[in-house]
Write a structure and sequence with these properties.
Layout: H1 14-44, H2 50-73, E1 78-84, E2 91-94, E3 110-111, H3 119-122, E4 131-140, E5 143-151, H4 168-176, H5 192-198, E6 205-210, H6 216-230, H7 232-238, E7 240-244, H8 247-253, H9 256-259, E8 265-269, H10 285-292, H11 296-306, E9 315-319, E10 322-326, H12 328-341, H13 345-368, H14 381-392, H15 395-404, H16 410-419, H17 421-427, H18 433-439, H19 451-462, H20 467-494, H21 502-505, H22 510-513, H23 516-523, H24 531-536, E11 545-548, H25 556-565, E12 571-575, H26 589-597, E13 606-610, E14 612-613, H27 618-630, E15 639-640, E16 649-653, H28 658-670, E17 676-679, H29 685-695, E18 710-712, E19 722-728, H30 730-736, H31 740-748, E20 751-760, E21 771-772
Parallel strand pairs: 2-3, 6-12, 6-13, 7-8, 7-11, 11-12, 14-15, 16-20, 16-21, 17-18, 17-19, 19-20
Antiparallel strand pairs: 1-2, 1-4, 4-5, 9-10
Helix pairs in contact: 1-2, 5-6, 6-7, 11-17, 11-19, 12-13, 13-14, 16-17, 16-19, 19-25, 20-23, 27-31, 28-29, 30-31
This protein binds adenosine-5'-triphosphate.
Adenosine-5'-triphosphate (ATP) binds next to helix 4 and helix 6.
Biased composition (Acidic residues): 499-509
Binding site for ATP: 210-217
Pfam families: UvrD_C_2
Length: 773
């Protein structure tokens, strides 16, 4: 495809479209007013039992969500019109569907996700899908500011000039717009290859491979909106999870789904995937790599088994003054009994405790009931039972159980493991000392993202000993049943027995309609949290669909977590194996997916590709492609859809001036329109951030991209984009990362308009395409 420059939109038909668009806004106002009334009515109802509370909450949630969607649709409500060969009325396409008040079949506005809207994105002159003309309508507020037409007629003399992009001028206007630090939706200009992915079947694992700027993130988010629309009921119950590479990235994309009217989605990065824990401490890449290896499954399992100890030497327990010996063999017997009861450590613990009590009680009985004349034990079954109870209540026995089979949380297991050289050595037999040393750390060290899969793995093996909660729940249920029965008895007792007529004796009482169990059920408290809230708080929640962005970065251990969250394997994974930065990440999709999902050709997963770069101008992509090739990647860089005419440049400075020179150039670029990022090797992050801040006080080192320029490592810049990018010390980036060429490639491709490179020493040959300054 050739790159194209923006064309001037023509403004025919603006007045006519204004009339229609005004009508749509009136309709939107009516629907909104009606929904507000319904919400007020739902809020005004006074529920008398928990079931009614649940119903009221559901109604409130439904109407509130609808209002959110209607509000979101206000801006850019209608953006397209299709004139068809055989339809006498045009079909209008917009952010939501709006039906006519008279209930006529053809809606006033078709939701962009509905099948009827698809030709707006995919019709071409060769496959016109019944469409004669496609019109792009641009609005500001409620005012139509331009219309742009495309005829889908093979005889159109202008056809040869076209680039193959749908709504080319509207698209280019969107791509050339300055960035705000927050991603926006692309619903007006989705391209055909993107649309096919957005609407692809939800079943199975869909992998979307695409170079930088091909719209993978945009496609993933619009696919989420599409799936919520198409499978609303199912996903409303099971939830949809979107996993991104970092909290900064999640903030960057956070507005997109709400702008499409969708709010019920869980957004998380690996470090926040475990409810109740925030694990964002930085970590050396080689440590994260070791923690991400599949062999950690065996390490965690060995760590758990290591806590199911046998004794080094016999223990002597003193029960009511009587010494009882508990031997190594006793401990081993109790352990194997517990292991046959449950595979899960905490669940097997009560069985272990029972076995210990049995063994100790047996010995205690043997001692106390010993027949000095050599006959059978003198104690009867009642005495034995009493002695067993005594043993079960004995603190020394509890202490022994705690020592040999402690109740463990995942956190405690891993803290103890990493802080103890003995435990680590036992759990990592066959490892090199160097690898083992990478895992060692003090007990108080903060959690990192790579710990999350290990904690989850541990949970899978520990289970919970919830016998106490279960019996509490049983007691609570019994209490409810008793209360309910009393209530029914009271109602029954208060009923008049002095019937005057036959009819009255036929009257139904509460007791006839409902038994105690039914009433108790109704009184049980209902969980009124939304699906997304419940899902985010529950480690064992399984989602209806999971979308993973920058999926190439995930380690083998992280994949296990995500696959557990989605047993149906309804997943969309987007990423670029040429941008993998972490050593634990993927260099090919087959390498990461085959172990879990089987080979691609046996339908374990399917791969689709995006081929056009919408972000990075052709001038910058030329240079980035050289870096990619020099790194030995077998992927080719996606082709840019536009050029800016602005050449990327390089400036050589002395080593001792790097931070200052970068700060000076950053201040210069900051004066240009739009956002700015300075991308540096990790080792220069602090110095460069300080220098830039001295000249541009609003500069930050991450977080809110809307506040001012940001200074980032290549890793932290993943998935983001900026109008201007300044890369400092490219050789530092090449040598510092485990996959240095990928990191430099990521850094260079973040720019939507301008790129500069500041380098101490010579320029690496792969950057020779930059203009010297
Ligand atoms: N069809 C489109 N219409 C308008 N803008 C688009 C379209 N497709 C992509 N874009 C824009 O291109 C830019 C890059 O998109 P996105 O961030 O989704 O790419 P990506 O493939 O995830 O990139 P990377 O791998 O580098 O993170 C964004 O600004 C996005 O809004």
């Amino acid at each position: 495809m050739s790159t194209v420059r923006p064309a001037e939109p023509h403004d025919d038909g603006i007045a006519a479209e204004q009339i229609y668009v005004t009508g749509l806004h009136q309709r939107l106002d009516e629907v909104r007013a009606r929904t507000v009334t319904r919400l007020a009515e739902a809020l005004a109802t006074v529920p008398h039992n928990p079931q009614a509370i649940g119903e009221r909450e559901a109604a409130v949630e439904l109407h509130a969500q609808r209002i959110v969607a209607l509000d979101a649709a206000e801006s850019g409500l209608c953006f397209g019109r299709l004139d068809r060969h055989d339809g006498d009325r045009p079909r209008y396409v917009g952010r939501i569907g709006l039906g006519a008040e008279d209930g006529r079949e053809e809606p006033l506005l078709v939701d962009w996700r509905a099948p009827a809207a698809q030709p707006f994105y995919t019709a071409t002159p060769l496959h016109d899908q019944g469409v004669r003309r496609r019109r792009h309508i641009r609005t500001r507020g409620r005012t139509v500011v331009s219309v742009t037409d495309e005829t889908l007629d093979l005889d159109d003399p202008d056809l040869a000039q076209r680039s193959g992009l749908a709504g080319e001028s509207v698209l280019l206007a969107a791509l050339n717009a300055t960035r705000t630090g927050r991603m926006s939706d692309i619903v007006r200009t989705i391209q055909a290859e993107q649309d096919r992915i957005i609407r692809a079947d939800h079943r199975g694992v869909l992998v979307v491979q695409g170079g930088p700027g091909t719209g993978k993130t945009a496609v993933a988010l619009h696919r989420a909106a599409y799936l919520l629309y198409t499978h609303r009921e199912r996903l409303a119950r099971s939830g949809l999870l979107i996993v991104g590479p970092s909290p900064t990235f999640l903030t960057y994309i956070a507005d997109v789904l709400p702008s499409l009217g969708e709010t019920g989605v869980v957004l998380a990065d690996l470090g926040s995937l475990r409810p109740g824990l925030t694990a964002h401490a930085p970590e050396r890449p080689e440590v994260a790599e070791v923690k991400g290896r599949a062999t950690m499954v065996a390490v965690v399992a060995a760590a758990v088994r290591g806590r199911q100890a046998v004794l080094d030497q016999p223990a002597t327990l003193t029960i009511d003054g009587t010494p009882v010996r508990f031997t190594k063999a006793d401990a081993a017997r109790a352990r194997s009994r517990a292991r046959t009861v449950s595979r899960l450590h905490n669940e097997a613990r009560p069985a272990f405790a029972r076995a210990v009590v049995d063994l100790v009680a047996q010995k205690y009985t043997d001692v106390l009931g010993q027949n000095v004349l050599g006959g059978a034990n003198l104690l009867g079954s009642g005495d034995r039972a009493a002695l067993r109870q005594e043993v079960a209540a004995e603190p020394a026995v509890h202490a022994l159980v705690d020592r040999l089979w402690p109740r463990l949380t995942a956190e405690r297991l891993l803290r103890d493991l990493f802080a103890s050289p003995q435990r680590l050595a036992a759990a990592t037999r066959g490892w090199s000392d160097a690898d083992r040393a990478l895992l060692a750390r003090p007990t108080a060290a903060p959690w990192t993202p790579a710990d999350i899969p290990l904690l989850e793995e541990a949970d899978e093996l520990l289970g919970v000993d919830d016998s106490a909660q279960r019996s509490a729940a049983r007691r609570e249920r019994d209490r409810r049943l008793r209360d309910a029965q009393e209530t029914l008895d009271l109602l029954h007792g208060s009923r008049s027995t002095d019937w005057e007529t036959e009819d009255e004796s036929e009257e139904l009482s509460a007791g006839d309609l409902l038994d105690a169990e039914g009433l108790a059920d109704r009184q049980e408290e209902r969980d009124t949290r939304s699906t997304a809230q419940r899902a985010a708080a529950d480690r064992t929640w399984t989602y209806g669909h999971v979308i993973v962005d920058e999926a190439q970065e995930l380690s083998a251990m992280a994949w296990r977590v995500l696959l557990r969250r989605c047993p149906t394997r309804s997943m969309t994974l987007v990423g670029d194996v040429a941008q993998t930065g972490s050593a634990a990440g993927a260099s090919s999709w087959a390498e990461v997916l085959e172990p879990a999902l089987g080979p691609r050709d046996r339908q374990g997963w399917r791969l689709v590709e995006l081929t056009v770069n919408y972000r990075t101008p052709a001038e910058i992509m030329e240079v980035a492609a050289e870096v990619l090739a020099a790194g030995g990647a077998d992927a080719s860089a996606a082709e840019s859809v536009r050029s800016t005419g602005e050449r990327p440049w390089a400036r050589q400075v002395a080593e001792e001036q790097v931070a200052d020179a970068v700060a000076a150039d950053a201040a210069g670029l900051d004066a240009a329109e739009g956002t700015l990022a300075v991308i540096v090797p990790r080792s220069r992050l602090t110095a460069v951030t300080e220098a830039v801040r001295a000249r541009v006080p609003s500069a930050t080192a991450d977080g809110d991209l809307t506040a001012g320029p940001v200074v980032l490592t290549p890793e932290a810049s993943k998935g983001l984009e900026f109008d201007s990018v300044l890369v400092a010390d490219p050789v530092g980036i090449l040598t510092e990362g485990v996959r240095g060429h990928n990191d430099l490639y990521v850094a260079l491709t973040r720019a939507t308009q301008r790129l500069g490179v500041v380098h101490p020493g010579g320029l690496p040959p792969e950057l020779k395409g930059l203009d010297p300054r």
